[in-house]
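pasting for the record
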Amino acid sequence: MRRVARQAQKLNPDGYIHARDADEYQRLRDQGLMWQRATEEVLDRVGLAAGMSALDVGSGPGAVMRLMADRVGRKGRVTGIEIDGKLGAHALADLRAQGGAEFALIEANMLELDTAPGAPFDLTYCRLFLMHMQDPVAALEKMQAWTKPGGIVAAQEFDFGAIAIEPPCPAMAEFNRLFEGVFRGHGRNLRAGRQLPTQFEAAGLGLP
């Protein structure tokens, strides 16, 4: 556990806590499969439909963009913002090869963008993204600015503090404590899910 903790302390130049390598990219793909059903439910609940435009902030390997494309169709537009150019380029190539919608990728730190090409969008969305932001409210404010009047801003976040293990496992509890401590030490929040209502209100979006 000490070795894992020391490695995790080494941030990427862009501030991302996890590594940027093949193992991490595969972890993100696996994570996308795990979250697919929950994400589909959100996209359907907000009414994403044929011909609409959608933005995925922190688009990673493109899993959410694929789900968006399935709903907006060939007359719709799907854009991703991803700070990791290598990961984003691979995702965009795969998405365009599969087709199904008009795809675009913005390689950037979203907080450094004055505007998002293609904005405003019918839906501006992020998943497991605000937990990596030192200023999640600023991120939500950007998302709101890039959304059409009457459009939707949506976020799905994890609450690490909701994990409970029965029967208790001291080793796992210690790992969780160290893991969350690394995030907290760098100003990140693994309990972002429970704070979404407060953050949405602070960004001027009202209660989600």
